[in-house]
Amino acid sequence: MTTIDTAGTSDPARAERGRRAFGEVMTIAAPDDSSPAIARGLIDFVFAEIWTRPGLTRRERRFITLACVADADAEAPIVEHVYAALNSGDLTVTEIREAVLHFAVYAGWPKASRLNMIVDQQWERVNHERGQQVPPPEPLLPLVTPSDPQARLARGEQAFREVNCLPYVPDRDNPYQGAGILNFVFGEMWPRPGLGMKERRLITVACVAFQDAPYPIMSHVYAALKSRDLSFTEMDEFALHFAAYSGWPKASYLDRVIAEQKVRVLDEWRADEAETS
Amino acid sequence: MTTIDTAGTSDPARAERGRRAFGEVMTIAAPDDSSPAIARGLIDFVFAEIWTRPGLTRRERRFITLACVADADAEAPIVEHVYAALNSGDLTVTEIREAVLHFAVYAGWPKASRLNMIVDQQWERVNHERGQQVPPPEPLLPLVTPSDPQARLARGEQAFREVNCLPYVPDRDNPYQGAGILNFVFGEMWPRPGLGMKERRLITVACVAFQDAPYPIMSHVYAALKSRDLSFTEMDEFALHFAAYSGWPKASYLDRVIAEQKVRVLDEWRADEAETS
Amino acid sequence: MTTIDTAGTSDPARAERGRRAFGEVMTIAAPDDSSPAIARGLIDFVFAEIWTRPGLTRRERRFITLACVADADAEAPIVEHVYAALNSGDLTVTEIREAVLHFAVYAGWPKASRLNMIVDQQWERVNHERGQQVPPPEPLLPLVTPSDPQARLARGEQAFREVNCLPYVPDRDNPYQGAGILNFVFGEMWPRPGLGMKERRLITVACVAFQDAPYPIMSHVYAALKSRDLSFTEMDEFALHFAAYSGWPKASYLDRVIAEQKVRVLDEWRADEAETS
Q: Which CATH number fits domain A18-129: 1.20.1290.10, 2.40.30.10, 1.25.40.10, 1.10.1740.10?
């Protein structure tokens, strides 16, 4: 006989759906844990009702999740999600390593340094479990960015405009903007091959939404929508997935910004259309 | 006819339960917002399936929630939950002000400074809405703790042992431990009247679980259980509530620590019983 | 002729400069790691192009870095930077212990508790490596601040005005402001000897910029500039260093606040000059 939990769920199908999704996403069996956080929260909600939704693919949800768990500093979830991303084959080790560099810029080096170590360890584990040698790192492509400082700044300014969908660039005679933003973040990091723009957007928006600084949240949500790298529906879905992994307070702020930036982008698209027609 | 939302819920009763809980907790009507984060996440899960659970009272959940939203730096949720805590009458302004001081210690002064300003603003708003003058605050002096540095340290050492359920105290000849922990945190802050031990435990565990440093999480979960200020069931319920407001990665770490500390505390209680019988 | 480095940079001198800077700052050899985060990010950028810059000394950069890695909760970077600060002789153990107390106030006690343990461990390690006994710590008592509650509050109000460069003090009849800010943070902590004002400013600004609460960021950037404890150039340099260790989103917010507060401080200086001339 099933006892009815009036406060939570009495639906065994929902729990079963959650356990199946857990197995598929995490590539290990769901835990037998009856604590409310795991049974009612993680299985019945996060796996049964978020990971199973359409709107973002499982692979796309992994980039958001990896950024969120690494931001949250919780050791076991970082290990488990890095392992699952590699073991499922959803991400190659080359992609996940490139994601660590992107994450480093938006979350800071200390958190990225931990993530990078865990990637190495879990990549060894996946290969060990398969009875394989760890393959040598893939030969990386020649960088598309120039080494000459002037040319690098110019490339940074071009990428800054393209990525941010903005008509202007920041003043280079400022250490943060010149030596940091133009020279490295946009002059070198964003133009690297190895991750598509959509994946870079997912990592970036997760990090800025976690970090709480209002202007970067606004500008990266705007650029993700304006560039059409993320559709409006995908961005809404992002907010729900992010809520589970970084909590409702941050997600509810993100959700407001998304609503505002949709209006702004729609207005701009309508104005562009009016101009060209 | 029920339309089936394959991605989320097909249960209008669940949404209705969520909207009713939202109204009771937040003291305003639930938003008409169909975005997944709000409709599927906040209403259908956080309000329909977390706030309605037994295990912790609504008043107790407020202390956890206030610590989580203030930790997360999200302006609107802080404003809304401070307003709701005061407007519902669940917390007095004296209690919430004492909670801000406790929060300052465990979350850092900058976050507490923002929370303190919002408490003043929302207390004015609540009084204004009721056509009342804002009553004068309770006076700070006289302090209940000793002024003499030696006596204050001794008081701090005693409170350190009682709050942490530990037989030893840290070396005072260390600025962090002596001037900070013994002199202020346990010598002055914890012994203040105005909040009960259970409320101080709720704020503390929320903050240490947010902050990620492993030893403080372990020691405060242990002490909350060992002191019986929180029951095992209440602590499990805490983890679920915390998951919603600070995200699953941090909550899953907390959940593990809770499981370990329950075993430790049970072992100690059994050993104590064996000794006394 | 430019040799092409297929892994990212075309400048082997840049990688070499980064590896040399790493060795000098970290007091251990740079890792042989070709992952993008380490080779392209940490060595080629953070060490080759940030730590080598003028504008802040290596010792000054350590206070920022220690606050950032402790805020980020990443175990290995905390250990490595505490070790490097002590092993290089850039910071004495007394200074770093005082820095932990200051950090506790602005980042919260749980993070500081972990940092404090690591300082003790690394101080033992440095002494062990040198075949020395760990010397006894400096005694806590007597405190330099008054014991009488009224006198302590008065001392706190004076320090509050001086540190914040403000003409007013907060109302003491509020637990956060009275028992916390005036009584402890400014009544005891800031007036402690053992760290200069510039060092306390570096820790404070790093912590408030990490914590995201807008008012404290504004007020501490303002006070650091207004007091002339940090020059305009040093503050700009701070933003770049901070970006690397706490991520670009928080740094971008800080950079804007710096620009605004420079204007405010310049205006005030001009007005003062006009008045006195």
A: 1.20.1290.10
Could you tell me which residues come within 8 angstroms of residue A269 by beta carbon, excluding any fewer than 6 positions away? none
Rounded alpha-carbon distances, angstroms, from residue B17 to A6, A219, B11, C153: 12, 36, 10, 50
Q: What contacts B189, CB < 8 A, 6 or more positions away?
A: B101, B102, B105, C179, C180
The three-point CA angle A215-B208-A203 to 5° equals: 35
Measured between CA atoms, the residue of chain C closest to residue A149 is C11
SS3 C44: helix
Mutation test of the interface with chain C: which of B113, B181, B195, choosing the one with the most C Cβ atoms within 10 A? B113
Which residues of chain C are within 8 Å of residue B143 when distances are taken between CB atoms? Answer: 149, 179, 183
Please give the Cα distance from A36 to A198 (Å, whole number).
35
CA atoms within 13 A on the CB side of C130: 14
- What CATH number does domain C12-86+108-129 carry, 1.25.40, 1.20.1530, 3.40.50, 1.20.1290? 1.20.1290
What was the pLDDT predicted at B144?
A: 83
C138 lies within 8 A of chain B by CB = yes
Which amino acid, residue A233? T
8 A C-beta contact, residue A180 and residue C240: yes
pTM here is: 0.91
- Residue % of chain C over a pLDDT of 90: 80
Q: Torsion-angle region of residue A266: left (phi > 0), alpha (psi -120 to 50) or beta?
A: alpha
Residue in A114, A139, A177 closest to C76 by CB? A114
Task: Give contacts of A208 with chain B, Cβ < 8 Å.
Answer: none
Nearest to A62 by CA among A95, A39, A94: A95
Question: C274: how many CB neighbours lie within 10 A of its CB?
Answer: 8
Ranges of each domain in chain C = 12-86+108-129
* CB of C77 less than 8 A from some CB of B: no
> Closest by alpha carbon to A14, among B239, B36, B16, B10?
B10
The proportion of chain C whose per-residue pLDDT surpasses 70, expressed as a percent, equals 96
- Containing C17, the helix (H) or strand (E) segment is helix C12-26
Cβ distance B114 to C213 less than 8 Å, yes or no, reads yes
Tell me which residue in A50, A76, A248 faces B42 most closely, judged by beta carbons: A248
CB-based contact (8 Å) between B41 and chain C? Answer: no
pLDDT of B117-157, one tens digit each?
999 999 999 999 999 999 999 888 888 888 899 999 999 99
- Put simply, the answer to whether C140 touches B189 (Cβ < 8 Å) is no
Nearest CB to B35: which of A50, A239, A245? Answer: A239
SS3 per-residue string spanning chain A:
CCCCCCCCCCCHHHHHHHHHHHHHHHCCCCCCCCCHHHHHHHHHHHHHHHHCCCCCCHHHHHHHHHHHHHHHCCHHHHHHHHHHHHHCCCCCHHHHHHHHHHHHHHHCHHHHHHHHHHHHHHHHHHHHHCCCCCCCCCCCCCCCCCCCHHHHHHHHHHHHHHHHCCCCCCCCCCHHHHHHHHHHHHHHHCCCCCCCHHHHHHHHHHHHHHHCCHHHHHHHHHHHHHCCCCCHHHHHHHHHHHHHHHCHHHHHHHHHHHHHHHHHHHHHHHHHHHHHC
**Span B243-260, pLDDT tens digits:** 999 999 999 999 999 999
